[in-house]
Predict the structure.
Amino acid sequence: MSNSTAVAKATEAQVSLINPDQTLKASKALIAHIKKAAATPAASGKQNLLADEESTVAETPIWLTLTTKRHIHDTHRLQPSKIILPNPLNTDSESTICLITADPQRHYKNVVASDEFPEDLRKRITRVIDLTHLKAKFKAFEAQRKLFSEHEIFLADDRIINRLPSALGKTFFKSTVKRPIPVVLMAKREKVDGKRVPKPKGPKQKRDPVENVNARSTPEIAAEIRKAIGAALVSLSPSTNTAVKCGYASWEPEKLAENVNKIVNDLVERFVPQKWSNVRNIYIKGPETAALPIYQTDELWLEETQVVKDGQELSSKSEKANIGKKRKSLDAEPEVNEESEVKKEGDRPKKKSKKVKEAKAVPESNDDKLDKEIAARKATLRKQKASAKKAVEA
């Protein structure tokens, strides 16, 4: 198993600390275990006559789990990020796609219906709708649930994806199962010497909303959609645990290992603060299997200052025990603050009162006397409990 002996000194120059051999070994063991479990009858003795062994294994997802030492805070947690994989996840030709675009929807419908658009992808896109029509037609909760059940994948233009939570509500955003995936449909701005050309200033010219649309070409839109539906989705939560789907149990171990290595490197480089020094564990697992580790760190802290060495005293900021301080007696007189007795009347300060001058210093408490008082009170309480118990039993 891979480990890190100098994780705290890891730098950005390091590409990866995981061992590809360990990843491949774990992938082989996990896939073999899932296939064996699917072929073995359940312990309860009940057999599902409708279940197909091959389809069950093919649909079993495998997840990569990354645990960090500190929480990951993501400000765009409602927008799942994408990691382009060498082996796409979604290759099912029967899964339906709903494409949510910016206004107007007629332009994007024409793009999907054009001859330049791939035919296999056109069959899967069963609905193209813009934000205006989405708010008008699917305002009711029942309509949103119907839309949610009619499609397996939802894609949304990244220009309007921030407005979808208010339009689609908790039906789509209470979980990450069918949360809309952002796609870039806006045309690329021209660059000169590596810099984007600024937009022309002046009054806006009227344009045809259908003909003059700020959108990419048809081949570029098709390529962007293919990347989105085959990528691994990263939905970060404010915790130390992040899970990403990396493959299926029906895959070859080599394909699964390639996706795992790609996801791990992108996760650490793009989403984990302080990179590998903040990574604690990395596992792969199935829905009902144990987690197989492919990376574990030896150091559970981020900085050496967080560890107290043997014989080292605590810092001055840490809370120390109340040792050597004398406690006040119960009979001690309250302290008198001389400054509180001096009040101003206009510009003339008032003279100190006689009470302040005659105030005596508070005598130091006697610990022996206080211990005797506490012991006497405890003895009295014990007697009262014993008498009450006798009265109840009588």
